């Protein structure tokens, strides 16, 4: 039980802050660019409670931690009215990129905090170090995953804002079905393939090298030899 509680505590803070501040960053950037919707609803805040989704922020990470030993999840999406933005096409890119950008910033902060471990009491240092390493991994996974160029993920909205209109409009029309496509490719297809004895996971194959590179960068900044 003590080992389980230890495992929960060193995953809980990184996962909650990674997914909730990701959403807060979207709202903060939108407010800066002319859309106060998220601010008026109290979503431009560092208080994780305002962003928690019971299923995505608590239940899903807990189930994953219990079953596969790794936590991942999502928060309540921040409402954005893109028509309020001063330059909707350009500002959509900045609002979308703010979430993954916040994850990279949190990973950088975690890498910096690891340097405090040697000067702290042993047990506190171990706890902080585990939190920081988990924060680097979780923020790397969340940031890279969200930059997959398929709406409604952040990367898809960035792509829609940057591509020529002839390509942007067809991509934007995928948004209502984007999460179904990603869920199918990331979860259903690997499950079906596994029944046939095949190892097929196109989403993981796409982002795994990038995640490794990002994690490696922040681990290097932390001075770790992982």
From TrEMBL:
Query: Its domain of life?
Result: Bacteria
Coiled-coil intervals, chain numbering:
none
Q: Which cofactor does it need?
A: Zn(2+)
Instruction: Report the GO molecular function annotations.
Output: metal ion binding; metallopeptidase activity
Query: Which Pfam families does the entry link to?
Result: Peptidase_M50
| GO aspect biological process, one term | proteolysis
Just give the chief location class. membrane
- What does UniProt give as GO cellular component? plasma membrane
Q: Where in the cell is it found?
A: Cell membrane
Per UniProt, residues of the Peptidase M50 domain are 135-170
Keywords associated with the record: Cell membrane, Hydrolase, Membrane, Metal-binding, Metalloprotease, Protease, Transmembrane, Transmembrane helix, Zinc
Q: How does it sit in the membrane?
A: Multi-pass membrane protein
TM region(s), chain numbering:
12-31, 52-72, 92-114, 126-148, 177-194
> What family does the entry list?
Belongs to the peptidase M50B family.
Protein known as: Site-2 protease family protein
Organism annotation: Zavarzinia compransoris
